[in-house]
Amino acid sequence: MGADAAGGVGGDGGAVFGRVLLKLSGEALMGSLDYGADPARLRTIAAQVAQVQRRGVEVAIVVGGGNIYRGMSGAAQGMDRATGDYMGMLATVLNALALQDALEKQEAVTRVQSALTISEVAEPYIRRRAIRHLERGRIVIFAAGTGNPFFTTDTAAALRALEIHAEAILMAKNGVEGVYDADPRRVPDATFLPAISHREAIERQLGVMDSTALSLCMDNDLPIHVFNMDDEGNIDRIVCGARVGTVVSSDGR
């Protein structure tokens, strides 16, 4: 692709965003599996991200680890919460490496940056280096959350998006079109919300992101686009300015 050459990726490609952060849950990588990462699902996601990057959009990714391990689940079974959270962070590194491999098969140039030091497989997270990678057309995958227990990968997504000056967070959901006033899997007549404010999402506990992440986005006026990951064209539609899913913003418009 020539994306690694000085000057980064060129071309307007119809994109309305210059830099975005994509938040993927670990479950988004599972496909039809009960746990782990489905190679076919990885290929599909990688193809979508590579298409957006070819439009000239700078893409960073934060990936969760719930398909492998959840710290909260371990804590519920008697494990120390901090220990469980560190195990969850290591799970996100596994997912980041799997996603990196799938992206490179799409001829994308990538870097994995980890908040935990694992120098054999990932760079340490350095904000200025991450920004430089993006400017040079590389897709940056942020692993290991914030590097601290008691913080979710949602919070890591909000923090990294703000640090790299992303214009929006693209929050991928599985099997739902966006944000509803109730869980549509449990309440069949739940109402879809095309737009909502950060504050309302927090007050109504709508499950967009955890409250810490939402507060960070609200305080810094960072919009969140919540969309269905199952539709393979949604990421591309969002970066091209189409109204897809739910937009969570400061004014709720």
Give the count of helical stretches. 8
Number of domains: 1
Q: So, CATH architecture? A: 3-Layer(aba) Sandwich
The CATH superfamily appears as Acetylglutamate kinase-like
What's the CATH topology name?
Carbamate kinase
Q: What general form does the structure show? A: globular
- The top level CATH class name: Alpha Beta
What is the ordering of alpha helices and beta strands? EHEHHEEHEHEEEEHHEHE
Task: Describe the protein.
This protein has 253 residues and is an alpha/beta fold. It has one domain: Carbamate kinase (3-Layer(aba) Sandwich). It has eight helices and eleven strands. Strands 4-3-5-2-1-6-10-11-9 form a nine-stranded mixed beta sheet, with helices on both faces. Helix 1 (39-54) packs across helix 3 and helix 5 (153-163) runs parallel beside helix 7.
Write a short abstract of this structure.
It contains eight helices and eleven strands.
SSE arrangement:
Elements: E1 19-24, H1 39-54, E2 58-63, H2 71-76, H3 81-104, E3 110-114, E4 123-124, H4 127-135, E5 139-143, H5 153-163, E6 168-173, E7 179-180, E8 192-193, E9 195-197, H6 198-203, H7 211-219, E10 224-228, H8 234-239, E11 246-249
Helix pairs in contact: 1-3, 5-7
Give structural attributes:
globular, 9-stranded mixed sheet, alpha/beta, 253 residues, disordered N terminus, 18% strand
